[in-house]
Design goal:
17% of the residues lie in helices and 31% in strands. The chain is built from one helix and seven strands; from the N terminus they run βββββββα. A hairpin with a 2-residue loop joins strand 3 and strand 4.
Length: 103
């Protein structure tokens, strides 16, 4: 991978950007992390039958500026959140969790 500038988080193993054909698109992609969801229950039951989800960073490769996303996956579900918004949500959740553990 040497014809395109890849983000530092982009994994050569998972990146689908074709350096010789940048106009054809593709996706920069980080290595995923596993998220233990065994205790997460929704009104429809367990969020993930296997108990494992994953999260990774992704960005479309195209000739114009694009957002970078946090992608969350559990079997049968996938959600992408712009990274800036994901950081704001995580900060708010961190504050809420901190507040809840102070009692």
């Amino acid at each position: 991978m040497n014809g395109i500038d890849h983000p530092t988080w982009c994994s050569p193993r998972l990146c689908t950007v074709v350096d010789t054909l940048p106009a054809d698109g593709g996706e920069h992609r980080s290595e995923p992390i596993n998220i233990d969801l065994r205790l997460v229950v929704t009104d429809r039951g367990r969020l993930s039958p296997s108990g494992i989800g994953s999260a990774y960073i992704t960005q479309a490769a195209c000739p114009w500026p694009t957002n970078t996303f946090l992608r969350l996956e559990v079997p049968g579900n996938e959600t992408s959140i712009p990274l800036v918004q994901a950081a704001e949500i995580l900060a708010q959740l961190n504050d809420l969790i901190h507040e809840g553990t102070q009692s």
